[in-house]
């Protein structure tokens, strides 16, 4: 029996499981899912866990159950493509016929001195828990520096304001304005929310060094009590260190079928995979869809299409606390309470579909 091994229970591999189970898995194929946790984590909501506004239990979705799905819990330490084997920290070895690598990402500190040692992360549930503990321990009037004003940084800063009105929050944005690649109306709305809620946005920032209680922006020293880093990601080291992989702008290069160009039995999905788009849950799901199409054709001994359909993303949604938000969908911008309800509704649908 062929063994399809899925590394990581993130958004891409959850979409693959949703499409193959319960009735679309060939009788001669079994699936082995390997993850460090016994549940799928809603990573897009980790900012709320760190801020203390949403409990961890609300960010868990159970993995599906099926007679030909085995779940192995552990930390992946090596992917041996020559032996077609995955090695785990506890010494286990899992053989595969086809492998989908969706192990996610870690923070990219861009070689900034002190950033890794002196900042907190929200890239995993465990790290978000640690961030929550540190933020909760801050005294009234303390200052938090959030480095990186992408979606994660924006949502974290706004949720922190809702959680701790007594804190000073500084959000460091490398660009000239919030969400500079999107319509100015959207930027102005988010900036206005931050102005109204006393979140200081520092535009055109360039963090040169991070100390325990200070950030160095250009040549200026800014005193802070705690730093959270949301300024970019890269694939985890196990993926970066795979023999023979080519990195493209920091992520693993793949062909149109999401396969390694040098190994058609290995697929890359999610934050690990190179793409014209920035990493997101939506992108990972679309990549998962394409992997399922490819696998089903290969299993049926059918010829792969000469060209896979282009991935088209619908847009994105962001929260500004629990009452306001913003949506960019099909070149249309929606802001305010309706946008926040749209995001909450999408999250409910996702949990209902996958749970």
TrEMBL record:
Asked if the Swiss-Prot or TrEMBL record annotates the protein with the keyword Oxidoreductase, the reply is yes
Similarity section: Belongs to the NADH dehydrogenase family.
GO MF terms, alphabetically ordered: NAD(P)H dehydrogenase (quinone) activity
**Which keywords does this chain's UniProt record carry?**
FAD, Flavoprotein, Oxidoreductase
Instruction: Give the GO terms filed under biological process for this record.
Output: aerobic electron transport chain
Q: Which cofactor does it need?
A: FAD
Q: Name one Pfam family in it.
A: Pyr_redox_2
Q: Where is the FAD/NAD(P)-binding domain?
A: 3-288
The name of this protein is: FAD-dependent oxidoreductase
Task: Spell out the InterPro entries in the cross-references.
Answer: FAD/NAD-bd_sf (IPR036188), FAD/NAD-binding_dom (IPR023753), NADH-Q_oxidoreductase (IPR051169)
């Amino acid at each position: 029996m062929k063994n399809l091994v899925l590394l990581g229970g993130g958004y891409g591999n959850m979409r693959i499981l949703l499409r193959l189970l319960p009735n679309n898995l060939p009788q001669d194929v079994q699936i082995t899912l390997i993850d460090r946790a016994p549940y799928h984590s809603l990573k897009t909501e980790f900012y709320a866990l760190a801020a203390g506004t949403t409990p961890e239990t609300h960010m868990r979705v159970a993995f599906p159950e099926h007679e030909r799905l085995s779940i192995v819990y552990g930390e992946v330490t090596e992917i041996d493509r020559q032996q077609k084997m995955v090695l785990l920290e506890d010494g286990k070895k899992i053989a595969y016929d086809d492998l989908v690598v969706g192990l996610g990402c870690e923070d990219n500190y861009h070689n900034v001195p002190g950033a890794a040692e002196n900042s907190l992360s929200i890239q995993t549930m465990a790290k978000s828990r640690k961030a929550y503990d540190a933020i909760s321990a801050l005294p009234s009037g303390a200052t938090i520096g959030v480095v990186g004003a992408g979606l994660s940084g924006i949502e974290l800063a706004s949720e922190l304001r809702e959680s701790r009105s007594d804190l000073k929050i500084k959000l460091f944005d490398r660009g000239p304005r919030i969400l500079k690649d999107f319509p100015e109306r959207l930027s102005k709305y988010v900036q206005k929310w931050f102005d109204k809620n006393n979140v200081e946005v520092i535009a055109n920032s360039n963090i040169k060094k991070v100390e325990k209680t200070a950030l160095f922006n250009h040549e200026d020293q800014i005193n802070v009590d705690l730093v959270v880093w949301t300024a970019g990601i890269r694939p985890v080291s196990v993926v970066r260190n795979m023999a023979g992989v080519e990195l493209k702008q920091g992520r693993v290069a793949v062909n149109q079928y999401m396969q390694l160009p040098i190994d058609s039995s290995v697929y890359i999905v999610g934050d690990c995979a190179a793409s014209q788009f920035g990493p997101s849950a939506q992108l990972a799901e679309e990549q998962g869809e394409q992997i399922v199409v490819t696998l089903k054709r290969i299993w049926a001994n059918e010829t792969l299409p000469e060209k896979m359909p282009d991935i088209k993303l619908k847009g994105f949604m962001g929260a500004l606390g629990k009452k306001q938000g913003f949506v960019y969908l099909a070149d249309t911008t929606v802001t305010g309470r309706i946008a926040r309800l749209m995001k909450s509704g999408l999250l409910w649908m996702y949990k209902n579909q996958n749970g």
